[in-house]
Design brief:
Blueprint: H1 3-25, H2 34-44, E1 61-67, E2 69-91, E3 98-103, E4 110-111, E5 116-120, H3 123-157, H4 164-196, E6 199-201, E7 206-208, E8 218-219, E9 226-241, H5 245-253, E10 260-264, E11 276-286, E12 291-298, E13 310-327, E14 332-334, E15 337-343, E16 349-353, E17 355-360, E18 364-369, E19 376-380, E20 391-394, E21 402-404, E22 410-412
Parallel strand pairs: 1-20
Antiparallel strand pairs: 1-19, 2-9, 2-13, 3-5, 3-8, 4-7, 5-6, 7-9, 9-12, 10-11, 10-13, 11-12, 13-18, 14-15, 15-16, 17-18, 21-22
Length: about 425
């Protein structure tokens, strides 16, 4: 090794040893004498949360508590649904080979049943109708003549002026002309129907979509003019797991007028329409998905629900009378299941296992076991607790007092607060 590198290594070693010695000599609280002891006492003595002789914090932990509440709780099943039009009609001409003359609807606007939404050139069919009417009148005139001839000859038969055989011929001629007139009337009605088909009528109350053909084109019976959708009322179709089938069928068949169905937006925050009602439970289970199909009907007065829209659906199957309800944030997840911190009479807390039976709105849950009416449970500050911890119970919305430590740092008793469920 060269002399240069030996000198460099010696310099580095001296710097390291000097740095370690400096840190040891200037370590906080390491000064001898009463000064160091006085600083430590000022930091620990007398402040809230001070440690006892055993080194543990004996001050009460500030927490928010709320009582259990007994109330009637509706039980909902949730699913993702698809909005479907009550009726969907693709409008096609019923005659072909003629020119489309006019379009009488506005795309995206509502149309009424019976309105003329388009017209086809009627001249050919008008001519056919006029011919049928004329033919009927001609044959009716021939029938009148034949009836008159028959009546005159019947009077002459008694005097022997006309043979009885000829009377039979006259009578058969009248019957033949009567049948011809009946056929003419049918031909007139047929021609009238064809003529009426030149006016394309809306078959339902609905909303017109985008038109598929422009005026001036030759149309046929396969030409799509427009698609109409009926949205007042409207359907929502959704699926539920097969294990819910019994509960739904029992509620649907056992005297319930109509099961309530609520349609919510994609964030499950706001109802999209007035409450709907379950209308149909499908007659089979889909073996590929293990689900069964249901259909609910909504009045949809403000047209909030739109065909093809995806919505979240809540189906109320029953109502639990006197269920115990607590804030959802009180429930903690442990290795052995759900539990809450229950406030004891001596202002300590105990871990209480509970069974959550279902959600109640967006911020509460119903418990089926583990608690009684009026029990106090901790809803905020659980992260500082353990079984037997002494607590200072606060009402929802109360903020713990701010304490100042001896070193000048500020801290909130009870730690970070979350939004209250109330």
């Amino acid at each position: 090794m060269s002399r240069f590198w030996k000198i460099a290594l010696i310099v580095v070693a001296v710097l390291v040893v000097g740095g370690v010695a400096f840190r040891l000599l200037h370590k906080p609280g390491a000064e001898p004498g009463a000064g160091g002891h006085h600083r430590q006492s000022a930091q620990n003595g007398g402040a809230p949360g001070a440690q006892g002789a055993n080194g543990q914090d004996n001050s009460p932990v500030p927490v928010t508590v709320e009582p259990t509440v007994k109330q009637n709780v509706p039980v909902y099943l949730t699913a993702l649904g698809t909005v479907t039009a009550l009726n969907t009609v693709t409008v096609n001409p019923q005659i072909s080979g003629q020119q489309l003359m006019t379009i009488n609807f506005q795309e995206g606007q509502a149309v009424k049943k019976g309105e003329v939404i388009a017209e086809i050139d009627p001249r050919t069919y008008q001519a056919a109708y006029d011919q049928a009417v004329a033919k009927q009148k001609q044959d009716e005139a021939s029938l009148a003549t034949a009836i008159s001839t028959l009546d005159r000859n019947q009077k002459l038969v008694a005097n022997g002026y006309v043979a009885a055989l000829n009377i039979d011929t006259y009578r058969n001629n009248v019957d033949q002309l009567k049948a011809t007139v009946i056929a003419d009337a049918a031909a007139v009605r047929s021609a009238k129907v064809q003529l009426d088909f030149t006016k394309i009528i809306s078959p339902i109350d609905g909303v017109a979509g985008i038109r598929q053909v422009d005026p001036g084109n030759i149309v046929s019976t396969t030409t799509n003019i427009v698609t109409l959708t009926q949205i007042h009322p409207i359907y929502i179709i959704f699926n539920l797991p097969e294990q819910n089938l019994e509960a739904v069928r029992n509620s649907f068949q056992n005297g319930a007028d109509k099961l309530e169905v609520i349609a919510l937006d994609r964030a499950d925050a706001h109802p999209l329409d007035t409450t709907g009602a379950l209308q149909v439970v499908d007659n089979q289970i889909d073996t590929t998905t293990g689900t069964f199909k249901l259909r609910a009907i909504f009045n949809n007065p403000t047209s909030t629900l739109w065909p093809g829209q995806f919505v979240n659906v809540r189906l109320r199957v029953r109502t639990v009378q006197g269920g115990l309800v607590i804030p959802a944030q009180a429930v903690q997840r442990g290795p052995d299941g759900d539990f809450v911190y229950k406030l004891q009479q001596d202002q300590t807390v105990a871990m209480q296992p509970v069974h959550v039976a279902g959600e109640v709105g967006d911020s509460h849950v119903m418990v089926s076991s583990g608690l009684d009416d009026g029990d106090q449970v901790v809803t905020e500050g659980q992260f500082r607790l353990k079984p037997g911890s002494k607590v200072k119970a606060l009402k929802p919305g109360e903020v713990p007092a701010v304490q100042v430590t001896a070193d000048g740092n500020k801290g909130k008793q009870g730690g970070k607060r979350r939004a209250s469920a109330g």
